[in-house]
User: Fold this.
Amino acid sequence: MVKQQKKTFYDVIETSGAVGMHTFDQSIIELYKQGLITEETAVAFSSRRATVTMEIDKIKAQKGEKTTDIEGLKIDIEYEKKIKKRLKCKGLLFVKMTLMFRKLCLFH
Assistant:
């Protein structure tokens, strides 16, 4: 038995461009592509912000524009050692607290 995937009305419209149908978000993306609205306006009025943002990023990447303002990231080579050290310290603290708890229980 084959399970059918349930489609929403939005999904049907979104995939029906061949017959002239398109969503409001697709219209917004087209207006952005034509330079008639800004990215901020497109995202503000979209119904599926993540989808519109992703499509705008694709358009910007095709134009060679930056798609993010994150710059200057570096790889922390020592990160793994730092985490292991923290876990080791927390493990020792847990053991000490467990022993103290057991001692307290024995005296009461």
About this structure: The chain has a mean pLDDT of 83. Residues 78-108 form one domain. The chain is about 60% helix and 0% strand. The helical segments are 9-14, 24-33, 39-45, 49-62, 79-107.
